[in-house]
Amino acid sequence: MTIPISYYLILSAIVFFTGVMGVLIRRNIIAILLSVELMLNATNINFVAFSHHLQDLGGQVFVFFALTVAAAEVAVGLAIIIALHRSRSTINVEEFNLLKW
Amino acid sequence: MSQLFFGYFAGMIAITSILVVALRNPVYSALSLLVMFFHVAGLFITLHAEFLAAVQIIVYAGAILVLYLFVVMILNVTQDDRYHSQWLIAGVVCIPLFIESILLLSGGAGALNTGSPSLQSEPHEAITANNTLAIGKTLFSTYLFPFEVASLVLLVAMIGAIVIAKRDIGEHDA
User: Fold this and answer.
1) Is the ipTM here above 0.85?
2) Predicted confidence pLDDT, tens digits, chain B (174 residues)
3) B71 at A interface, C-beta within 8 A
4) What is the assigned CATH class of domain A5-95?
5) Taking the model in full, what pTM does it have?
6) Residues B32, B19: contact at Cβ < 8 Å?
């Protein structure tokens, strides 16, 4: 018994929209970055499901690259958070309004 | 049997991903994200992507999440984290997109399942029992240039993180 590809797509959609909700409604900047990780993982699930479905390894290789970019994003993002916390001593995103219109 | 595994992993992934957003303490959010990473790795194993499952656990659970916990604890986040006042925007963005994707999937699922054999015109390097060997061959032949670019991305991120997070030299005296 094999699982239809649409099940994986629905699971990935649920995880992705949970991540979008998290980015939009959380105030803690670390929680926002964690929600970005949720979205990246949703795309990874999609890539691997299609790689299995089409019997093509390209999808798994792209998950590898997505992992690389996620690691780079986390390193730079957390460095920015530390620099922000040093200068403003808060991590609430509503306090950061210097570039707001 | 595979449906049982898929049901368990999918249910746990959905529940823990909602918990990541719903829990207020960032440490608990990070820990439920850890549980989610392990279940995504399990899902990869059921999809015969054993190498990626190992990489998922080592890189995500081992490196990225430890970095998150490190920063959460170095910043000592104790203040009460309330939700944003953007519920309306979030609802307007998410609910139509979600309904849209469900409609697309329910309408296109039959076509997707039946039309797939025509797509696999030439199985690239058919996913064999030796998953790591096949990924290595693909990575170092077809995707050699993106692989080198990925190493450059990592180098730039490493230097950038050090430069951004470094305390300025003269700042300590002032």
Assistant:
1) yes
2) 888 889 999 999 999 999 999 888 888 899 999 999 999 999 999 998 889 999 999 999 889 999 999 888 888 776 556 666 677 777 888 888 878 877 777 776 555 554 444 444 444 445 556 888 888 888 899 899 999 999 999 999 999 999 988 876 556 554
3) yes
4) mainly alpha
5) 0.83
6) yes
Phi first, then psi, for residue B83 (nearest 5°) are -80, 160
Q: What span, in angstroms and rounded, lies between the C-alpha atoms of A55 and B14?
A: 26
Question: Residue B128 has which token pair?
Answer: 């064999």
* CB-CB neighbors (< 8 A) of A18 in chain B: 14, 17-18, 20-21
Instruction: Measure in Å the smallest separation between the Cα of B10 and chain A Cα atoms.
Output: 7
A78 and A33 in contact (C-beta within 8 Å)?
yes
List the single best residue of B24, B75, B93, B158 to mutate versus A (max A Cβ within 10 A).
Answer: B75
Q: Is A92 an interface residue toward B (CB < 8 Å)?
A: yes
Contact status, residue B81 vs residue A31, Cβ threshold 8 Å = yes
- Are the C-beta atoms of residues A78 and B161 closer than 8 Å to each other? yes
Residues 6+ apart with CB under 8 A from A92: A27, A28, A29, B79, B81
Every domain of chain A and the residues it spans = 5-95
Element (H, E) at A95: none
Amino acid A26 reads: R
